Amino acid sequence: MKLGQQDTDPIVQAKHLYLDYAQSNTGSDHVAVVKDASFSIQRGEKFVIIGPSGCGKTTLLKAIGGFLEPLQGEIRLKGVPVNKPGPDRAFVFQDFEQLFAWRTVLDNIVYALQVTKRIPKQEAINKARSYLELVQVAPAADKYPYQLSGGMKQRAALARALALEPDILLMDEPFGALDAITRNQLQLELNEIWKRTGVTIVLVTHSIQEAVFLGTHVMVMSSSPALIREVVDTSHAEEFGSKEFDDISMHLRSQLIRHETRSEGIAQLSAVE
Ligand SMILES: Nc1ncnc2c1ncn2[C@@H]1O[C@H](COP(=O)(O)OP(=O)(O)OP(=O)(O)O)[C@@H](O)[C@H]1O
After folding, report:
1. What is the residue with the minimal CA distance to atom 16 of ligand 1?
2. Which domain holds residue 138?
3. Which residues form the ABC transporter domain (predicted)?
């Protein structure tokens, strides 16, 4: 923690953030993606980002991860400007092929620990095994990724990310490619893991239900170039089917529809359940 930084200070703070990509194949040099975004994330939150397809959710996650330099504004992590990736942030993606195919599940985690944390091999093995237990994939420790189901691959990727004991877990539609039953199971388990570890989670999803179920806060973005519409406190709406859950889900849906019908049209909403 930076000198002077308090536990109560936001772990992530974005101020007047503009994100873009250089475009070599169009008339203009840059394509604006995120515009004037200011928000903060407290330690231990599950901060969920929703918005229409292509609005810039992944881009924002990449910027928090330090993979994309802001055009203007800044992101601070524990009070320090983010300008490169670091072991304090770990990613889990939607893609099932995140693990090294030529290493076993255990070796994937041990390797990540040795490279990023430089800890002795036996210590890395012990740590890897404890996180495989936590995400309930320990029996697959000696298997190769091609021998696993999609759900097991996501569990293994989650175990690898958690084993790094990051300050923030950045999750980009981590359950988006799973069948409904496995997805629900992993949502429940992620909540349990979060309660046990207290890790701060920043998660992108297309699903309003998933956002309300998992999030303590949900940030709604508009279409590209994305503006932040609202950050909603969803911490009291964990239970599927409760009045709070339904009210917040309806509110989020109406926020997305209201703004998208005004600008880009309803077509993009097909991406938001
Ligand atoms: N490397 C890149 N170079 C140029 N443009 C990019 C690049 N990556 C993304 N974009 C553009 O930036 C915009 C935002 O993309 P991004 O992937 O952040 O959106 P998203 O909200 O995560 O989308 P989805 O919900 O469909 O996953 C899109 O218009 C996309 O085409």
Report:
1. 56
2. 97-165
3. 12-248
